[in-house]
Design a protein that fits this description.
The chain contains seven helices and 15 strands. It is α+β, with helices and mostly antiparallel strands. The protein has two domains: 5-247, Sandwich (Immunoglobulin-like), CATH 2.60.40; 270-322, no CATH class. Strands 10, 11, 12, 14 and 15 form a five-stranded antiparallel β-sheet that branches. The chain has a four-stranded mixed β-sheet with strand order 4-3-6-7. Strand 8 and strand 9 form a beta hairpin. Helix 1 (50-64) packs across helix 3. The longest helix is centred in the first third of the chain and has 15 residues, at 50-64. The termini are far apart. It binds calcium ion (CA) (2 copies).
Amino acid sequence: MLRSCFARRGIDTGLCLLLVGTIGAGLGTPPAAAQRCVLAEDFTAIWCIPCIDAGLALDQLEAEYPGQIAVLQIHVSDAHTIPWGTARFNSYPDHASIPDVWFDGVLQKVGANPQVYWEYLEMFSERQSVPTDVTVEIGGEQVSGPTFTFQVRVCLAPGGVPKPMRVYLVRALDHYPAGGAHYRNCLRQAAPEEDIDLAPGQCQVIERTMTFESTSWSQPNNIRMLAWAQVPADSGVREVYQARMISWPFEPLPPLYDAGDLNCDGTIDFVDINPFVLYLTNNAAWQTEFPGCPPELGDINGDGTYGQASFGDINPFVALLAGM
Ligand SMILES: [Ca+2]
Ligand SMILES: [Ca+2]
């Protein structure tokens, strides 16, 4: 592979390899729901000088918009390259040059200079302005030593647009490789992807087990887990609907609903009384009326007994509502 770098005078854009990429079109305007976390994929290499500008600009964006941007540096053609990263690079259009940064899989910027921050900011802001009806959460639990099980929960808002999605989970190591502030969230491993199909109001949890290699495990504070839901395709411009990044220490996914929320609408109030009566008297009918609503939500006193005729939970339920 050719490894040359040069600056294109006139537009003053530093490039490695060849060519200038195109800007993909934004896709879709689903109804509003969650705040968007923008995925920024930075294809880079340690021998690429303009990639320093790209990394520094993304470093600044991440500092200024915490939780709203997930930066993933994917090394291509150097010692930190993994096959998944190379395939990912090749899956996007115009993948001839680095630095090559994709925002949410639809906006591309090839090349960088010390002012590239402003172009990144514009693309990031454009993506932030596109509403999304998808949420992504990541939970993690230690199995033993450096082996963890991660759960990615993807939900489609009630009133959202039904859509197939491909769910990704990768792990990265921040401030790696050592040697500069421009090295952020270096891709180390990608879990097998999974295609899901959600209806409005539905959630699905994808579970993957990963073992940290010694370099990552020796600096857990720098471990980053990233997940995102994207248009399911193997190549081309394809929109990321939502992304998420979490840091050490990892926590299990919080429950979607609290005990007492017997209609699973996210709040506990008097509207839950009739569902609770149905729950106690005809549990099968309750499950039919509220599909996907976990039966444990009826265990108001948390004694492990719940379901049909668990009348011991009535007084705690009344107390719960009285305390609202
Ligand atoms: Ca409720
Ligand atoms: Ca109970």
